[in-house]
Request: fold
Amino acid sequence: MIKLSRISKEDIEKILNAALEFADGKVCKAKSDVFVSNLFFEDSTRTRVSFEVAERKLGLHVIPFDVQTSSVNKGESLYDTIKTIESIGIDLAVIRHSKDRYYDELIDADLALINAGDGIGHHPSQSLLDLMTIKQEFGSFEGLTVGIVGDVKHSRVANSDADALRRLGAKVHFSGPEDWFGQGEMMNGTYRNLDHLIPEADVIMLLRIQHERHSSEMQISDYLNKYGMTKEREKRMKPGAIIMHPAPINRGVEIDSDLVECERSRIFKQMENGVYARMAILKDALEKKGFEFEEIKK
Ligand code: CP
Reply:
């Protein structure tokens, strides 16, 4: 799985339903030996750890790959690294890389590939766990209003989520600092003033300021009041509306620290769902390669 835009609406629904079944306690194990490796060329906590938990829950053999101590440090290219682990017997690789579209150079690889985030491109497993969290909450996407707020320009999460949400029937609006939106970067969503959007939205999805992708130092002292989830804005949200954030969170910047675990917040639920969404993604990718799973518990 490289990006959600390559996946049909029906297949997205199928993976979401599988993820929800895993959340309800379904247990599946691989019927044969399957070797997987997680290659993180960029930092991660949630994605890396939850992929590994998901892999172990599915009975896959997880072969450690530490970029810092690998031959990448001797100059080995991404392509040669992937061809190497494929030759050694790895059946599936999960890859995060700072380079946009790093996967283009891996088109000839035979092993299954899962994109765990490419530059400011896409983050499909985050999108699926976000979609799963919304579906768990509201049952469907039709007619929902979702506000994606913050550093849209540098966010691979915004990119992946906006497209999928629209295809599934939700209305997507963007908010945040206007000069972080350029021509053509609003992904067919409309830009809205945050204070107008807040009382209409069913979901407010806050984005982390991607300090590592900004060329100059950010002035963040006034960000919370101007563009963040303050206590006053939370009070003006619709009954039943929820707050999401892919994390890591800049507490007191994108969201008041006291709201991170408030009743409306689904931030830690998103992380929990990340394991189930990734189990469904891994199973789907491996089944497409001919591997079989047995159902141990419905
Ligand atoms: N949301 C997310 O991708 O978190 P990590 O960078 O910790 O994996």
Observations:
- Residues 44-47, 126, 246-248 surround phosphoric acid mono(formamide)ester (CB under 6 Å).
- The longest strand covers residues 112-118.
- The longest helix spans residues 267-288.
